[in-house]
């Protein structure tokens, strides 16, 4: 099972596609070391994210607790405080670190509302490499504003010896956003094709399967059904800063329990989780994020291996690209079916003086996530 620990909703970026920064949590309410110690061993990918996890003063202790419990420990960071990660990487060089990067200097800083963000994170990842980091990379959220730079970011990451993880606009309780829509779905989707071809040309099998993951992103961008059904609550779960456990980070009606008050076994086997898994089986959203896609692509029999569909697609198209042929994307994707969506303008917060507002006295999950509806179709 994969697990994401959303350690805080405090954040020092001001992204246009994620409003966590407008909804910070109080440090004293955030999931404690004692609560995280209750997690069992045996997770596959355990991601410590946020908000911005480096704003937790006890991030090193969090990693000390979760590191032995997972095959892969990951930190998703905006990269604005790389110095806080250096001691962690010196201690655990194989901790996976992904810094958010949304394109070139101007584009990334505008989308993320970060002054000098680009320089800080590019220099910061180099620092982590010097510290001995072995699994470093960038993470990019594909949107109209940066899709033209997608292949360039991939090539830049590759030349520096880094990975590139991609996702795209989603509406989700984790992001406090339910109005993330593409302006030109088809044009954005078409430009992802270039990244898929570039990834298939790579010599790394990891990139070939990322190519398939990006094929799923094209379906998501166009508003089509997911390539593979979702297994939220069974193959992955999320813990929010209030220690509430959720099947996924999208729908706020898929609770499983609370790790501060219950044991992990009670949560997984409880009635609430069982009811939630039934709802997941009927979920008609087409979200396709790294966690939801990666787990869906895994074989049910040998989890280290991919399912037959991605495996066959990768083999066929890797051979095609290797002999210099083009992939016929139209044979996989119905580009004539583009779901209509409202036009909601995104705006940069780079030069805007918007302060985050700490709302005290939020007690129930309904108060934590007031937006209620999050559609991804
Ligand atoms: S498909 Fe449904 S259950 Fe799965 S992650 Fe998306 S909203 Fe959650």
UniProtKB/TrEMBL annotation:
Pfam annotation, one family: SPASM
Superkingdom of origin organism: Bacteria
Keywords for this protein: Iron, Iron-sulfur, Metal-binding, S-adenosyl-L-methionine
SMART domains on file: Elp3
SUPFAM superfamilies per the UniProt record, alphabetical: Radical SAM enzymes (SSF102114)
Cofactors that this protein relies on: [4Fe-4S] cluster
Any one GO molecular function term: catalytic activity
Protein name: Radical SAM protein
Organism, scientific name: Pseudorhodoplanes sinuspersici
Lineage: Bacteria, Pseudomonadati, Pseudomonadota, Alphaproteobacteria, Hyphomicrobiales
């Amino acid at each position: 099972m994969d697990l994401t620990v959303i350690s805080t909703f405090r954040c020092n970026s001001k992204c246009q596609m994620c409003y966590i920064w407008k909804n910070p949590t109080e440090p004293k309410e955030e999931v404690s070391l004692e609560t995280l110690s209750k997690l069992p061993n045996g997770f596959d990918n355990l991601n410590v994210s946020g908000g911005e996890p480096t704003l937790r003063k006890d991030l090193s202790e969090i990693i000390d607790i979760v590191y032995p419990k997972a095959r892969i420990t990951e930190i998703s960071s905006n990269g604005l405080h790389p110095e806080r990660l250096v001691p962690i990487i010196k201690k655990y060089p194989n901790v996976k670190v992904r810094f958010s990067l949304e394109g070139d200097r101007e584009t990334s800083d505008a989308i993320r509302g970060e002054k000098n963000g680009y320089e800080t994170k590019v220099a910061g990842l180099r620092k982590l490499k010097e510290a001995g980091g072995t699994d470093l990379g960038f993470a990019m959220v594909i949107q109209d504003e940066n899709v033209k730079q997608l292949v360039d970011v991939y090539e830049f990451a590759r030349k520096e010896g880094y990975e590139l993880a991609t996702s795209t606009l989603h509406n989700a309780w984790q992001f406090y956003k339910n109005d993330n829509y593409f302006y030109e779905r088809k044009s954005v989707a078409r430009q992802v094709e270039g990244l898929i071809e570039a990834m298939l040309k790579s010599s790394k099998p990891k990139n070939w399967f990322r190519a398939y993951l990006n094929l799923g992103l094209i379906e998501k961008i166009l508003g089509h059904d997911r390539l593979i059904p979702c297994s939220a609550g069974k193959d992955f779960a999320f813990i929010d800063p209030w220690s509430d456990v959720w099947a996924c980070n999208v729908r706020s009606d898929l609770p499983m329990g609370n790790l501060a008050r219950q044991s992990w076994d009670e949560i997984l086997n409880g009635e609430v989780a069982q009811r939630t898994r039934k709802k997941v089986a009927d979920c008609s959203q087409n979200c396709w994020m790294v966690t939801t896609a990666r787990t869906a692509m895994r074989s049910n029999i040998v989890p280290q291996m991919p399912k037959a569909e991605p495996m066959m697609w990768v083999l066929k198209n890797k051979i095609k690209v290797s002999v210099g042929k083009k992939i016929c994307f139209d044979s996989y994707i119905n580009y004539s079916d583009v779901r209509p969506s409202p036009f909601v303008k995104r705006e940069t917060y780079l030069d805007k003086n918007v302060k985050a507002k700490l709302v005290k006295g939020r007690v129930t999950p309904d108060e934590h996530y007031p937006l209620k509806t999050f559609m991804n179709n």
